[in-house]
Each structure stands twice: as structure tokens, then as C-alpha cells.
Amino acid sequence: MPFRRSDLADLSYFLAIARHRNFRKAATELGVSASALSHSLRGLEERLKVRLVNRTNRSVTLTAAGEDLQAAIRDPFAAIHEAEDLLNLHRDAPTGRVRLNVPDEAAMRLLAPILPEFVARYPDVELDISVDNTMVDVIEAGFDAGIRFGGTVPEDMIAQRVTPDFRWVVAGAPAYFEKHGEPQHPDDLMHHQCIRIRLGNGRIYNWDFDRGEESLALTVPGGIIVDNGSISRALALNGMGLMYAAEPAIAPLLAEGSLRAVLQEWASPGPGYFIYYSSRRQVPRGLRLLIDLIREMKPLG
């Protein structure tokens, strides 16, 4: 079959579909409509005379031919993108696109404060930030890098620290303490309303406490479970219960008195944020510049 110039774009579109198993998400990544993506795939399948994707109202899966095609062209296309980034070494100003997968707290507390300066310095670098608290395979999903707490970074990735370690504290609104009193020991939390945390892997997080040689990991009670730090703060501010958070995430609220930390002597240390990426790919120049700027500005210390 003669190769057409349009096949290169269609194969790129196919790889996005294969990564996301979702036409809408693939279209969003590529900046095209889902209908254009569907039309591209249909044309590719007609020219190749083989079905690559099975699509229903509920799912998108690859056929055996689609799996073989993805395996065959994934690395060559990655090499093309890396070659494009190498050209940045020969430009006065960096260009290109960097795709990041980050949890909501990192997006708000780590990235948002430095983005105005990044855009001012590197206006031709496009940052595509996906805010997602679930644990995803950032490489399989087409991201250049992810940001997570140190203990959750996959072992086969290169990880670079971008914040110090954090203290994890319990906090609540003054109105909550007026009504329910303050816990004096972590065990007292068994008699309080706690806003529980669902982690990105689906597990409910235990609240950790350390004092000297003592360490506790408590499954606290509470009728509300959230997977989003902003919601947890909003509920705590409204007196709905006690929250458990990395201290920098609520530092402004503690300083102004909207929230009050308790059990301070039991605050548990935990690893800070790390940015991580594949050891098998060239690091985009835009990503290196972003890491350098985070370390320069230190939004979380």
C-alpha cells in the first residue's frame, strides 16, 4: 500500500485513541473534534483494509490488528516527538508542548503560583495540565510527566523532588470545636466527625500520627468521603468535620484563623511532591525549564 502524507496524521490520531480508549479524551488531547477523529480512523481503516478499533456506546477497544499496529508504531512516533524537542537546543527561545498529570492540590499550590512567570519567560511553550487525583500510567496515557507525593511515584520512573517534606495535621473550624470540643489524643478522633480521604488508587486513607517513638495509623470515623482537597477544605470551613491535610495546603487558613490545627505534637511527617517521568525518553526542554522554575520560586518552600 503506497504511503500517503495524510497517513502520518491518521496514525498519530490512532495512537491517541489507543492511549485513551476514548474518542472524546483523544480529541481533547489533539485539539480536534471527536467527529474529525472518527472520520480519520474510518479513512485509515478503509485504506488499510482492516478494522483497528471496536467501538460501542460504552467502550472503545483495540482489535488484534489495532494492538499490533500500536505496538509497532508507538516507539517510532515517540522518537519523532523527541527529535522535535532536540531542535529546541538550536532555538533562541524554547517551543513545544508539555503534558502534565497532577493532583488538584499540586495544581493549586505548586503550579498555579509559578505559571504566570513561566508563561512570561517562555511564551512559546504550551503547558497542557490534566488535574486528576487518580493514579494513572502517565506514559501510557500520553503525558510527559506527573506530579505525586514521594511515596506514590512508580519505581521505574525518574523522580525529582520539587518541595520539602510536609507535616500532616488535623484541622477544623472554630465553630466545630465550640460544638464538639478539641481532641487531646488521636484516639479521641473516634468520637469526632472526620472528613475521610479516598486516595487515587481507591483506598481510604488512614490518618497517620507520630510522637517520639509512638506511631499510629487510624481508620477514622466519618460520614463524608472525598477525593479532592478543595472540597475537604470547604467542608471543614463549614464546620462539617475535621480534615487531615498537608500543612502547606491549609497554611493561609490557619494563619487567618478560619481553621485551627489540633494534635500538633502528633503531626506526622510525609514525603513532599516529586515530578516524575520516563527513564526511557528524552526530557522535553520545556519540562526541564518548569522544574528549574519551581525550584527557583519555591511556592511550597
Automatic annotation (TrEMBL):
A Pfam match is LysR_substrate
Q: Does the keyword Iron-sulfur apply?
A: no
Gene Ontology biological process: DNA-templated transcription
Q: Which UniProt keywords apply?
A: DNA-binding, Transcription, Transcription regulation
Record keyword Signal present: no
What Gene Ontology terms describe what this protein does at the molecular function level? DNA-binding transcription factor activity; sequence-specific DNA binding
Its domain of life reads Bacteria
Domain spans labelled HTH lysR-type? 7-63
Annotated coiled-coil segments of the chain: none
Q: Which protein family is named in the record? A: Belongs to the LysR transcriptional regulatory family.
Q: What is this protein called?
A: LysR family transcriptional regulator
Which source organism does the UniProt entry give? Novosphingobium guangzhouense
